[in-house]
Amino acid sequence: MKFRFGIEHEVAFVRPDGQFADFANTSFEEFESIVRRLPQYEQDYPQLRVGDAGIKVKRWYVEGFERFAPTGEVVDCPPKGIEIRTTVHDSIAGAVGELKESFNLLCAEAKRDGFVPALVSFHPFREKFVPVPPLNAFEKSRRHESPEMQTADIPMLTQGPDMNLSSLGLTPEQLIDVGRKLTYYSPFIIPFSYSSPFYRGEGWSGLSARTFYRTGARPAVMVFLAEPFQLIESYPSLTQLARVPAEVGRIEFKAFDSCGDFDLYASLSALLKGMVLDQSLTGRATVPDESLHKQSARAGFSDPKIYEQAQTILSAAKQALETKENLADYALLERLDESLQRQSSQAKEMLESYKNGMSISQVLIRAYQQPQEICCGV
Fold this sequence. Notes:
Elements: E1 3-14, H1 28-36, E2 60-64, E3 67-68, E4 74-76, E5 79-85, H2 92-112, E6 116-118, H3 137-142, H4 147-150, E7 162-167, H5 172-189, E8 198-199, E9 202-203, H6 209-214, E10 221-225, E11 239-241, E12 251-253, H7 263-277, H8 290-299, H9 304-321, H10 327-342, H11 346-355, H12 360-366, H13 372-376
Parallel strand pairs: 10-11
Antiparallel strand pairs: 1-5, 1-6, 1-7, 2-5, 3-4, 7-12, 8-9, 10-12
Helix pairs in contact: 2-7, 5-9, 7-9, 7-10, 9-10
């Protein structure tokens, strides 16, 4: 079975004045001026979607809350950061390698304007996004187009990766089944990535504020299909109509926290691949179990149920990848095995640094791992 991979990673920043950059203190133009100086690769298209607003024209684009005039034109986009998206690759290593390269280029350009990347999965200081000015009639009507439009304010407080994979030959029914499988097992695998232990300007009583306040209202997985009749109704959505041909068959896992060490994305991609290939895991869910995700967000692998299920899933993924053609991906799971045994997470390390006297902004800046720190001058 042939797989293809892609990664989308949202980057938050600390401003030149030391404030955490967000929709309240940073303009679209400030981030767009950084993106404008980054290269554009014509060979990326049509596999990368530009979008109706015309903002997503490169591998980098300003991520924010699009504002519309009453007549429907995009007039503003209060930002939360800059998103990096890779092109589609035949290997996990190819996708991660491109992500690193794009991140390094972004860091260099952002540094020229005094912006420093900060690892964030949930806004460390604010608990609410309120559009200013209030939504007009056109914007209100637009929010009823999908379940995700109705909760579009939540992503303004969150950063996180979209881990994309596809497998040639899967039918729409099989793709939906994979989506339901990953949705069911989501709360047991996402602690590998936890990195959002701050809330309202202080340490949070858990490991992933992002998971606690996001997953359930927002999807854990999205499956992209070719035809409207193939979609299934759910709240939040599990399926979505592909917007460009390259999206058809994409399985997008959306529940991980952001990772400061991009090699962890390689291990997580291998885990997802192993779960797709596995035939032993029988759990299925069309929508995320919100209470179980909250339980996972609080305790991570220290919760016996989360820990035991994670062991089962990791073992199943290992067995599925233990073939000659998948040995490179099988090796990537060793890191997750070690993390599970130690019950470790970046969130715990971040909290420890905070308790030892670092400011939240300092912790967020330091959370990006080598070699990214070198390129960014952190």
